[in-house]
Amino acid sequence: MKEINKRLFTNGAVYVLYTEDNYPIEVTDTFLPYYTKDAIEKKQNMLTSYDIGNRGERYLIGISCMSGCPVKCKFCATGKLKKWRNLTAEEIVEQVKFITQKNVEFPFTEAKEHKINYTRMGEPFLNIDNVRRAVEKVEFVYPGTHHYISTVGIKGSDFSWIKENITLQVSLHSLDEERRNELIPYPNKMTIEELGQIRTQSNLKTTVNLTLVDEADFDIEKLKKYFDPKYFFIKLSPINVNDISEKNGLGKGIIEGVNLV
């Protein structure tokens, strides 16, 4: 893969890479102080000092499992790409190696938490065979990695392999079924009720991600009805404003601030 562009920010960078057949993908390299891992117990989601930590604390790599994406969520910039394809397991692992080779002074496996977020381009469960092979390959090279896999909930998905150091995130975005179908127009996805029936053997609860556009998208009664807090953790996310979200008139959403992931 070849690096085409990068954008630096306070605690990391985002890279645009191209595959050998000239498909674009996005990879992120970020870090956070270790205490942010305990944000739930601390009941706060903000840095408590100007110390932003380093890759020896929480070292986070965000990778793509596709170039482009057929799901086309209404606030996702990936939707503007005119074509898409699945990445091979080797191409997924190569993204991890690309970032670790950029930071040789901070060995990935020596960080207090080393985590890969399968949250950039693509829907992992539409490329599940390659994603699972990539997880195995990464685990062999970088043992003890926390794998965080995000999905809109593709019908017929097998979640039995989500166990131990592999954690699942499901994209909800609205507790109204019709509105959710509007925000996530991919037809072959699980209903809200079906998402609430997911059970995994992960060391951590399944994350329910709500990128809230309007207050009407949130319904505490439905949330309590379908998502048992014994099995689910609720995450409220802001909209990362981009060409697609603006084209669809979604604004900045109702959540102010940025998640510490």
Short description:
The chain is of the alpha/beta class. Helix content is 21%, strand content 26%.
Description:
The chain is α/β, with parallel strands linked by helices. The protein has one domain (2-247): TIM Barrel. It has seven helices and 13 strands. It has helices at residues 39-42, 89-102, 128-141, 177-183, 192-195, 220-226, 243-247, and strands at residues 2-9, 12-18, 24-32, 58-62, 66-67, 85-86, 113-118, 146-151, 163-164, 166-171, 201-202, 206-211, 232-237. The strands form three sheets. It has a nine-stranded mixed beta sheet with strand order 1-2-3-4-7-8-10-12-13, covered by helices on one side. α6 links the parallel β12 and β13. α2 runs parallel beside α3. The longest helix has 14 residues, at 89-102.
Distance between the termini: 26 Å
By DSSP (H or I, 4+ residues per run), the number of helices equals 7
Number of domains: 1
The residue-averaged pLDDT reads 90
Radius of gyration: 18 Å
Structural class: alpha/beta
Strand content of the residues, in percent?
25-35%
Q: Would you tell me which CATH topology applies?
A: TIM Barrel
